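pipeline/complex-builder :: batch 7 item 3
reading input block
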Amino acid sequence: MAIIMSIKIGILGYGNLGRGVEAAIKQNPDLELTGVYTRRSPDSLKINTEGVAVRSTAELEAGRDDIDVLIICGGSATDLPEMTPKYAALYNVIDSFDTHANIPSHFANVDKAAKKGGKIGIISCGWDPGMFSLNRLYASAILPEGKDYTFWGKGVSQGHSDAIRRIAGVVDARQYTLPVEASVNAVREGKNPEFTTREKHTRECFVVVEDGADKAKIENEIKTMPNYFADYDTTVHFISAEEMKRDHSGLPHGGSVIYSGTTGEGNNHVIEYSLKLDSNPEFTGSVLAAYARAAYKLNNEGVSGAKTVFDIAPAYLSAKSDEEIRSHLL
Amino acid sequence: MAIIMSIKIGILGYGNLGRGVEAAIKQNPDLELTGVYTRRSPDSLKINTEGVAVRSTAELEAGRDDIDVLIICGGSATDLPEMTPKYAALYNVIDSFDTHANIPSHFANVDKAAKKGGKIGIISCGWDPGMFSLNRLYASAILPEGKDYTFWGKGVSQGHSDAIRRIAGVVDARQYTLPVEASVNAVREGKNPEFTTREKHTRECFVVVEDGADKAKIENEIKTMPNYFADYDTTVHFISAEEMKRDHSGLPHGGSVIYSGTTGEGNNHVIEYSLKLDSNPEFTGSVLAAYARAAYKLNNEGVSGAKTVFDIAPAYLSAKSDEEIRSHLL
């Protein structure tokens, strides 16, 4: 048996995703959490791992010996474009950057910094982008004459929930994205249909409002909100704060990538990858933890620069030896 | 735009799988079939690609310049253990070796030969082993506290069909393996059940017999055949040769890998990868073609030795550039 060396992990940012990464680390004996880093006052944070320090992000500046991989749990809008390149110069880093249009420039920025520092920077890791992307790639490489479909849900969209919360009179909101089952089934049957936005997903909203708020007005504001809701069939339910807490405090999500392609004389093949997740941040955190192991191993082999899930051989994700995975999983 | 250089492919063995690889090559403009190699008399073979030579395997002996990757489409029982190491010394090779217990020794033999020749030898490629293996690995690396289940079917098992054909009085046979839907659903619900062999799959047989054959005796011989049928609920249908030809000449297959794991305080996650294939050999051939591209690229980078799907970064499978896949598939 090889001796398992602990890989020392730092978590930057302690929201839902940071806690998800923390939970994942506890399930992996070869990973060790050595610190949580926050822009808030460190004293204000109580974390779920005994004996691990909470420190200010300022303490990351000089480069620390107790971090093999820094997992950056920030937002894609403003945090990650700044943080990931910055820390990639000093540490192996991973993020879950998901602003699709900006992936090329984010990749270039992280690549430059990571190569300069001799580190690995894995960007856009999680399940979409992440595991869903992998399935789009594998399927299209195997069946070049085909088409991929991605459906999301049933799951909570934080962005859409936040958009509802910004409406005057709204106290709290939870928005679920749901795939249209008939459309999913048409794809599964290999029909290669074309869909409008409305035909792929519906949106269901649970909303708590202030006493005396104009519900009809709020419902209309939600349903007609451009980009977020106007292009979808949207349902709005007004509920109490107690119901919100009781029935909607989880963050489930999931979805599927379905690829339909043909070979030979019209033989059809359907490849489907689907996720049903009780906790989106805990699953995403688990993906990040597995790729932290990969970042560490790759960097130990002398590899540096920006990487995505496409660039990393699957064996690097596993805590098991190559012999073990060949014997038991192949 | 990068200039697409053709990767020159040889196919060794021209049965169902060889023809499946041939069909796949036609869909990939960067792959070019330069020869089909056979142990039969080359004159006896008529292939589906105009202008491509059929040659004797003897012509492979000296090492040919017109093969970048040799795809070996032989049987796992006796062909591949001998062929893959032999040709790995001379060519980049790929096989679909699927005798699970012998993977470690096959890997070692191919590794030794391939390293000596400075070539790549990818073994056990296809969908199981292959794409299913990848999904077992990714899922277990992400969710270490969980369990994987593999279900096969509905699909034709060639080995079981052959076993029936060996019974006296049987003219032809086709055996379908079917997953037990209730068991699949129990796994999907995250119940982590334990199954007996009988609880996971059933077997359905379509059999053509000689005139005057004792059907009751044949049915009993099938149902009690050790290893193949005795541990399963098996159904036998006697049909005419015409019905066999009309209804059972395809080679569909498929199945699913379902992984159920937990994180945090009992949050459950279900990952499901499923295939529904009209033609098992054409899909398997398409996987081999994509990995042929990977073998070529890796060897061009100076990599040699035995590899499996676990060792190969997904980007190597694609004909598209890294920039393109990051922009469109991530």
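note: Chain B touches chain A through 65 residues (CB under 8 Å).
queue -> next item
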